[in-house]
Specification:
The protein is an alpha+beta fold. It has one domain: RutC-like (60s Ribosomal Protein L30, Chain: A), CATH 3.30.1330. It has 3 helices and 7 strands; from the N terminus they run H-E-E-E-E-H-E-H-E-E. The strands form 2 sheets. It has a 5-stranded mixed β-sheet with strand order 1-2-7-5-6, covered by helices on one side. Helix 2 packs parallel to helix 3. The protein is globular.
Length: 159
Amino acid sequence: MTPPSQESTVVGRRLLDAGYVLPGVPQPRADYLPAKTVGGFVYLSGQVPFVENELLVQGRLGEDVSEEVGTSQAALAALNALGAAHAHLGGLDDVDLASMTVYVASAPTFHDHHLVANGASKVVGVAFGPHPRTTVGVTSLPLNAVVEVQLVFAFRSAR
């Protein structure tokens, strides 16, 4: 089943009005599902900042990637995660964001992970408003991605 267009949903229009177009779901590069519904929750696998199934930026913050670039990569990863949720659910109007975790690949001397994660929060905030977030600095991520964003949604009403 094809999900409704982004324009036909309230959250989708909100994102479009802010200049964000939901991308298609990148093909998984390993053995996992992009999303799974369990009870009243939707769990998304971590999404990296693919552009048309390609990572345009690779590396670690504090070494070969600037904070500004990392922040934009976090926004892109969050947009990919919202795109995966939209495809899985057929829209985002029936869920609230329960939590977001942003993983930031960084050198041991980098300490501004929370500022990089603001890129993801900006995108998700347009869709869902204020939200809980955890930011974790790691030494590496799959495919040498700069960031990875993982979302958990809760249905607004019982299913």
